[in-house]
Amino acid sequence: MKVKEFKNFKTKSAPELQKELVAREEKLAQLRFDLAAGKVKNIREIRHIKKDIAQILTLIKISNHA
Asked: From the CA atom positions of the chain, what is the Rg in Å?
C-alpha cells in the first residue's frame, strides 16, 4: 500500500474499511491458492497484501476506540 493510499484509508469510516478488509482477505486467499498451484509469479504481492490487511485492521481498531 502506498502512502497516498494509506492516507485515503484514514478518511474512510469503519464499515468502508471493513469492506476493504474483506476484499483484501479474499485476494490473499486467491493468491495463496494460486501459489500452491504454481501460478504466482510475484510472491512479494502476498507480503504487500498482508501488510495492507494489518494496516486496515489497525485503523479499524483505532476508529472503534475513538
From this structure: 13
Angle at 52 between CA 40 and CA 36, to 5 degrees: 25
Class of the CATH domain delimited by 3-65: mainly alpha
Give dist(CA 31, CA 25) in Å, integer. 10
Instruction: Parse the chain into domains and list their residue ranges.
Output: 3-65
CB of 30 within 8 A of CB of 9?
no
pTM of the model: 0.87
Cell of 46: 502476498
- The Cα 52–Cα 59 span in angstroms is 11
Which residues in the chain come in under a pLDDT of 70? 1, 66
